[in-house]
Amino acid sequence: MNKLLKFINDYKFLYLFIGIVLLARPAYSIPTSTDELKQSFGTFCADYGLDFCAVKSDDQKNTKKPRKFTETEKKILTRLAEQQDRLRLRSLELDRREGQLKTLQEDIQRQVSQLEKLQQEIEKDIAKKKTQDDAQLIKAIALYSKMDAGVAAQSLAKLERKIAVNILKQMKEKQASLILSSMGAAESASMIEEITRK
Predict the structure, then answer these.
(1) Cα–Cα distance measured from residue 19 to residue 29, given in angstroms and rounded to the nearest whole number
(2) Contact 75/67 with Cβ under 8 angstroms?
(3) Where are the chain's structural domains?
(4) Tally of CA atoms within 13 A in the half-sphere of 43 that contains its CB
(5) Positive/negative CA dihedral, 67, 72, 78, 82
(6) Which residues of 29-67 are buried (b: 16+ CB within 10 A; e: fewer)?
(7) Digits of tens for pLDDT over the chain (198 positions)?
């Protein structure tokens, strides 16, 4: 009995302090059972760093100790880690290649655009040249139409065969026949054959 009284006297300030804290709490939070009182007291001690009376919270109880792995588990985990590293490196390599392909695709698209522009320029030049050639052919036809048939025949004989045939082909039939009759028989036959072939 004396020991109990001595213990109470030694720790009465602690009991007094705990009593004040518990009374200062709202009525709904005052423990109603012994378990709740132990839990409240233990939580209080844990909050203030009093380890001798602290009760471990559920979070502390649920913390697991580090698990020790068997050799087989260690090997499996090592293989999994190596495979994860390989997959990461492969992913980096694929990203790098994707970047290269994207750059190549942009280069190809740029070259295609340049080729399309060049093709348009060439088509314009061809159309311009054809227009110029047609204009020159029309002038040549007009000149040969006004010439004497004999002189025109001699002049056409000296021209490139294709040009001469094109001029005769686009002249009026009467003028072309006069020029052809002024040529030799073999030459006029050859010209007529080329005119009819085209």
Answers:
(1) 14
(2) no
(3) 8-62, 66-125, 147-198
(4) 12
(5) negative
(6) eeeeeeeeeeebbbebbbeeeeeeebeeeeeeeeeeeee
(7) 566 566 556 666 556 666 665 555 554 456 666 677 677 767 766 666 666 666 665 555 555 556 677 888 888 888 988 999 999 999 999 999 999 999 999 999 999 999 999 999 999 989 888 888 888 888 888 888 888 888 888 888 888 888 888 888 888 888 888 888 888 788 878 888 888 875
